[in-house]
Amino acid sequence: MKYIEKLHYITHDIPHLSHIEQAQQACEAGAKWIQYRCLSKSDEELLKDINAIAEICDDWGTTLIVTNHVHLNGKADIQGFHMEDMDADFIALRKLVGPDITLGGSANTVENLIRLAQEGADYAGYGPFAETETKPNNYTPLDTEGYQQVIKELKAMSVNIPVLAVGGIKTYDVEALMQTGIYGIAVSGAINFADDFIEAYQDFYTLVKESAVN
To answer: Could you tell me the domains of the chain?
Structure first.
């Protein structure tokens, strides 16, 4: 079973910090898992970013995951990919990237989670927890009760996949969320737009570690 960090930090297109600057600050804050999420650049621009971020991650011993863009596998020092397409074929993806690359997927139903587990995804981002401007969507927020229910259902069916809550999570949500039995959380906006980026990351990290029940 692959190592999956309990706090996933996700970069984003924002005006005041480049993706590289976001990654640098996250690593300085102690991040062990960075998901580079950029859907607005050409392959050449993406690789320029990814190579710079990979160097930073290598210096800090941080896992680098890239959102989508699986066609870039082997062209940079990328440890894994997170696929946002909920219909992505993970059996075909695994054949494409091989056994060592980490593959995560997005889900918003129990059925999505079951399929990801059956097709060999290494983890699932499940949400949205709340409304979020980072990744606008029309899905109904799950709130804490939604995570309690899905973890209960997965356990009842003996479905085993690390589930991370994602979408609009604030520090004051973390303790109750982690108590539902989820594996971890993924955060972007609450760190990127905090008054103190590094302090915000470290607050999330401490809360996740102290609140984890598994």
So the answer is: 7-211 (3.20.20.70)
